Amino acid sequence: MYRLGKDVFDWIGDNTNLVSVINEMIKNGYEFRCVEANLWMDIVYPWDIVKVNELAMKPAKILAGKIERATIIGSCIGKNSIVRAGAYVKGSLIGENCEIGENSVIKSSAIGNNVKIGGLCYIENSVICDNVTIEAGCFIKDSVIDRGCVIEPKFTALSGLAEIRIGDELHRVKAGVFIGERCEIKANVVAKAGTVIGNDVKIEPSKVVSGFIPDNTRVL
Questions:
Q1: Beta-strand relationship, 169-175 and 160-166
Q2: Tell me, what's the pLDDT at 100?
Q3: Distances from the Cα of 21 to the Cαs of 12, 32, 144, 158, in angstroms?
Q4: What is the DSSP letter of 150?
Q5: Where are the beta strands (DSSP E) in 31-96?
Q6: What is the pTM of this model?
Q7: Strand order in the sheet with 208-209
Q8: Of 4, 105, 172, 214, which one has the greatest count of Cβ atoms within 10 A?
């Protein structure tokens, strides 16, 4: 991974081999500094996001929001966020303008900005992106929920060993559920481990879903 100034474009010309460009710059007096990474993990597949989150979730304790009678352990609570009474937040990052409902549990998870999580939810080792609404009584583990989703009460995202097909590749991994942008999931839906839900999908109440659900699908 390279971090370069704009002047690198003065040296590229017709040479699109970056290593050759850097070597030429060094010959002409430029100095480069290298830093050896202690850990490197590419995000290639959806479940890689969960793995990276699991490794990264050691946030400094910053409490910028409002905390009611809740338990906060080793977590960061963003500005204008509120954690309701009885909630338990451990090793997690909560963004700005969020609401964590009464008696909900958030463990080792990254929660984006403008997220509303209802009461009695359990969320573990998951990434919840911006502008998501998760209503009461949901269970979500080892999962990723992308921006703008609305999830009604008692949604369950199961986690376990699953076979997930990406193109022509079949992967056998421990995973939860991966949900794209702007999805609407009605009450009492269960998503089996390894389910991949595309963008703009609507799932009606009390359905059990699995496998791959393409963009713009409606599950009746």
A1: antiparallel
A2: 98
A3: 6, 12, 39, 49
A4: E
A5: 62-63, 66-67, 71-73, 76-77, 82-83, 88-90, 93-94
A6: 0.81
A7: 71-73, 88-90, 105-107, 122-124, 139-141, 156-157, 190-191, 208-209
A8: 105
